[in-house]
């Protein structure tokens, strides 16, 4: 059988391999997903809830096994892997509960002998394609929501990190989630994407990944008019005003930026610092970044781990050299780490201007790109000057300004005085070219249902 080899990005060592499925094998898995739908969707919400909860509890009992595997295939440090598992388990727990609360409506009728009800019905068999940067949470966030709503789902995880996904499937089976309800395929992404999108029986696709592939999948899905959730790229502004608590702002910035070595769609990509506190922020940022170790993720303390692969290293390196040629200054880091391999130095770039390429490029590496600004009006316009609209961060102690930012920043999420975005209870998602649809919270489950209105007429009520 053909296989895909999975390597540890910290050591370069082979960890394991997984199947490189043929077209025919992928189609068989899709059939299983389709065939499992009628019985799964007919199950009581309470029954689906119990199975999700059992899955949650089994994973939780083996959290450390999952954390070590996640660190091995992705490179992020153990404390981050544990954090991702808690975050991902949160979705299973949340949607195990939400399954039972998928309420409909009754509407005052226009018909004197009628009644109107509105029900929410599972959309059908669904598919998902996920990236490598959150190999655990990306899967649970989609699967738990789909299953709770009564949909079945087939998943294609990223080629670099399929092992966590495969383990999640094994635990789902142990928990009693039947074959077909949660299916998983690994293999050629283009071929799998084409099968998912061309199959009219798959009624929805949830994709997390680059805007480029998201657009391709949307195009391919047009022929069967599928419902789509698109969690795509970002270009997050991180704004620090001079009225902020500067120490907290820098702390929030460093944790948001260096998490997963900066390989996060919500990573601060353009750091805007008000001129009047610029020197203070830069000094604190440099002091803070210089404290952080770069190392293999199997450490108890927070460390910046490797980038995912050589392509990622080359992209960051090329972006830094272009930015420097365009006039920026490297004041910290700026090259492959002395450890070699896929380790890159946390880097700070200053003297940036909005006309440089980096301003409109998703960095996806441990690079702080710092700009300065003069006033609120100006920085809001500059923050909005991007095709993306996933998240924006700002630090300010002014309530009025915080409110204005919440209203005027063009993004799906605005995070004020914190560097932390995600939990299961909030609607995660973007606007513009960052995509559409929401994951998490009660909004998330709405993506997996069809609203049906039924009129019962002729009831002889009058
Ligand atoms: P990517 O290249 O778009 O890959 C994402 C997934 O799509 C992977 O499973 C990949 O498979 C698959 N894929 C690649 N080509 C495909 C095709 N032609 N048809 C169907 N599927 C295909 O993105 P990435 O580089 O892995 O991830 C980074 C991007 O994801 C960034 O832009 C980041 O901002 C975005 N992201 C967004 C969110 C969000 O919630 N908005 C979260 C995380 C990441 P293989 O791995 O097998 O190539």
Sequence-ordered SSE layout with sheet pairings:
Elements: E1 3-7, E2 14-19, H1 23-42, H2 45-61, H3 63-74, H4 78-98, E3 105-107, E4 115-122, E5 126-129, H5 137-149, E6 153-156, H6 163-174, E7 182-184, H7 189-198, E8 204-208, H8 211-221, E9 227-231, E10 236-240, H9 246-258, E11 268-274, H10 278-290, E12 293-294, E13 303-304, H11 310-325, E14 329-332, E15 347-350, E16 367-373, H12 376-384, E17 388-389, E18 391-395, H13 399-408, E19 413-416, E20 431-432, E21 435-436, H14 441-446, E22 449-456
Parallel strand pairs: 5-6, 5-8, 6-7, 8-9, 10-11, 10-18, 11-16, 12-13, 15-16, 18-19
Antiparallel strand pairs: 1-2, 3-4, 4-22, 9-21, 14-15, 17-20
Helix pairs in contact: 1-7, 2-4, 2-5, 2-6, 3-4, 4-5, 7-8, 9-10
Q: What does this protein structure show overall?
A:
It is built from 14 helices and 22 strands. The radius of gyration is 23 Å and the shape is globular. With 462 residues, it is α/β, with parallel strands linked by helices. The strands form 6 sheets. It has a 7-stranded mixed beta sheet with strand order 14-15-16-11-10-18-19, sandwiched between helices. A 6-stranded mixed beta sheet has the order 7-6-5-8-9-21, sandwiched between helices. Helix 6 links the parallel strand 6 and strand 7. Bound molecules: NADP nicotinamide-adenine-dinucleotide phosphate. The site of NADP nicotinamide-adenine-dinucleotide phosphate has 26 residues, from helix 7 and helix 8.
Largest sheet: 7 strands, mixed
Shape estimate: globular
Question: What is the spatial order of strands in the main beta sheet?
Answer: 14-15-16-11-10-18-19
Number of strands: 22
Give the N-terminus to C-terminus distance in angstroms.
Answer: 70 Å
The helix content, as a percent range, equals: 25-40%
What molecules are bound to this protein?
NADP nicotinamide-adenine-dinucleotide phosphate
> What is the CA-based Rg, rounded?
23 Å
Enumerate how many helices there are, as a single number.
14
Q: Unreliable runs, pLDDT <50, ≥5 residues?
A: none
Assign the structural class, choosing from mainly alpha, mainly beta, alpha/beta, alpha+beta, or little secondary structure. Answer: alpha/beta
- Beta percentage is 15-25%
Mean pLDDT: 97
